[in-house]
Amino acid sequence: MTTVLMADDGPGRVLGLITAGTARTRTAIAQVTGLARSTVGQRLDTLFDAQLIRESPESLPSRGRPSRVLELNPRAGVIISVDVGEDRTRMAILDLNMAIIGDRVEKLKLGDGPEVLLDRITALVRELIVQQGLEQTAVAGFGLGLPAPVDYEAGRVMGWSVMSGWENYDIRRHLRRSWPVPVLIDNDVNLLTLAEHRRFWPSARHLFFVKAGTGVGSGMVIDGAVNRGAQGAAGDIGHAHVAGFGDPQCRCGNVGCLESLVGGWALARDLGEGHDARDIAERLRRGDSAAVAALRNAGRIMGESVAYATSLLNPDVIVLGGLLGSTGDDLMAGIRQVVYQRSLPLATRRLQIVPTRFKSRAGIAGAGHLVRDHVLAPATLDARLTVGKTPFGDQ
Ligand SMILES: [Zn+2]
């Protein structure tokens, strides 16, 4: 007899087929995997015992008796998702289908430093769990998005950012004192990119996301996975130099960065009013013609950077998000114009350039997907499945 390789055809892979909708009945799972029906039965027993799957009310017709359809039990565990912003932090509890069970927003000051802020977040999340009556539900994982470059493996903020004072602090170790579960930490733009891909473009192989807000950033999905580069700095187009538009001082210390020309703070500087993307968005809502002109111009400048990325990555889709990216079409028009002008036809033939479809809570969805992808990955799950026990919770 050959040895059974768990990661290849273990319960984790069977669960993956069910959650992806590839195979949702015993018969279909046997067909797709080539496993004997008895082996499929064992794998499913393991998943039922761990309360990871349940029978759906739906059934599919088949020869003989109808097949029961299997589905993920979304309450097998909950995911804590926290999206830290420059002035507001959103905290949410999600089920495994990414539905928000409860959430709250608080004004937290990044300047208070990691120890104070992470303890505050922990206390607020605990309150949320109690409010929702989830004290007895296993926590599958904790996802945290930060407005800074993050070394994903190390779970630390690296280099210059608005999170001054957080550099190199071991965030994961701090959070794991209270939450002994997988703690995954990433840059906020990477999480927006992941959310966009998983929610709206799951079949696109390559997606490029641009966030236009007070700051400017981008993220990329390559071959279905977020690409973070060697140190987590991949995609930081906001602080790459753009030639030909003057060299204003940037807040990172360099001059002439894309953000120093088109970031919300830079537009406010040029317009001589307000100080961030919110102020610009407010002027746009009033139909202020100077703000509209500034945003159109910003679109053309941003188009230079996006065109370069298009030539480099040949994405299937470019998604524009952030407060300024989702306020009207003025920014988008400029970007489209320059990208189509500058890129080779082969790179743009099937390219779609679209605004984000998220109205809000994209960061929460991204942190949730990050955790879900990790804890439901077949290898992770198989390693944690012990007969009759939930794979989630303390570890
Ligand atoms: Zn800069």
From TrEMBL:
Alphabetized Gene3D superfamilies for the sequence: 3.30.420.40, Winged helix-like DNA-binding domain superfamily/Winged helix DNA-binding domain
UniProt superkingdom: Bacteria
InterPro entries membership: ATPase_NBD (IPR043129), ROK (IPR000600), WH-like_DNA-bd_sf (IPR036388), WH_DNA-bd_sf (IPR036390)
Similarity comment text for this entry: Belongs to the ROK (NagC/XylR) family.
Entry protein name: ROK family protein
